[in-house]
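Item description
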Amino acid sequence: MVRESVFTADPRRRLATCGCLPEPFGSGAFVHSHACLYSAATHRNLRCLEALRWKRCLLNVATTTTSNGSSPNDVNEEIHRLLLKTSQAGEACALATVAKVTGSAPREAGTKMVIFEDGRIAGTIGGGKFESLVIEEAQKTMTTGKPILKTYPLHEASEESFGAICGGEVTVFIEPQPRPPLFCLVGAGHCAQALAKFASECGFAVIVLDDRADMLGSPHFDSSIRCLAEPSPEVFVRSHKWSERDALVLVSRNYHLDREALAAALEKEGMGYLGMIGSKKKVLAVFDELSKRGVSRKVLARVRAPLGINIGADSPAEIAVSVLAEVIMVLRGADGHPLCESLPANRSTEKISS
C-alpha cells in the first residue's frame, strides 16, 4: 500500500485527530496520523475518542494508506520541479524536510514541503500548529538566508511543547532557497533573445517584457524564460520589488518604450544595474526629454547608456556578450580591467613566481 499524493488528498481525510479514526470510504481501510496504524474495526466505538483526547490534537492527518495513489518519490519529484519553476520565476522560497522522527509523528522522515514568502505552501509535513510553526520558521530563514535544524516536540513533557499530544518528536531541516538575481529585459528583439539565453546560463532568472505576443515564447525564447505581454514595462518596473542583485536592461524596438521604462526605473530605484541600448544620439535625446520632466543629471548618471563594454561587438550575440559582461561587472563591483594587467609590466623578461 502507498500513500496518496499530498497534492490531491481528499480534504475529508484530513481529520484533526491525535489518534486514528475509522476510514469512511470502505471497510478494512484506515486513516493514520503520526504512524499510529489502528484499523477501522478498533475504533468503531466512538467513545474511545475521548480516551485519545483527539480534540486537543493540533495536527491534521496528512496522508492516507490506500491501495492506489502517488508514491513518496512522485511527490518529491513534484517538489523538485516546483523548486526549479520557482527559481526560474525569480521567487524565493524555503524547503522543509522531515529529517528525523522519534515516536508518533504525522509524517515519515524524508517528507518535504515548500514554503513561499507569503506563507503559501506546497505539500505538507503534518498540518496543524506544528506545520504553522515550521512555516513561520521558514519565513525567517528566507530573511536571514541561513538554514536551520529544529526539533518540534509533539508531547507535553517538553518546555517547548505547543499543545500537541501525539507523543513523538519531529526534527525538520529548513533550507532557504534565495531568490536568484533577476535579469529583466524590456524588448524581445534579436539582442534580447541572445541576452536572455546567456543571462539564463549565468544563473539569472530572466523576464522579457514586450507587447508583441508573437515574439514571446518558443521559438524565440526558451521555456525557462518568463515572457510577459502585460503589464506594460513601466507598470512592471514600478510594481516590482527590486534588489541590488537585479538588472534592468532596456533594449526595446523604439526609444519611446525605453524612455518610459527608464523614467519608471529612475522613480523606483533599487536595482543594481540599469542600462539602455542605443546610439549616442538616442541616449542624449532620451536624457534631454527626461530632464525636461524634472529628472536631474545626477540621477541620469546612474544609467549605463549606451550599455555594454566596448569589445567591437557587431552581431546580436556579440552585443549580448558585451552587455552581460558589463552587468556582471557592475553587480559584483569589479573594475573590468584585463586580467593580464595583474602580471608584472616587464613579464616578458622577468621571472614570474606563482
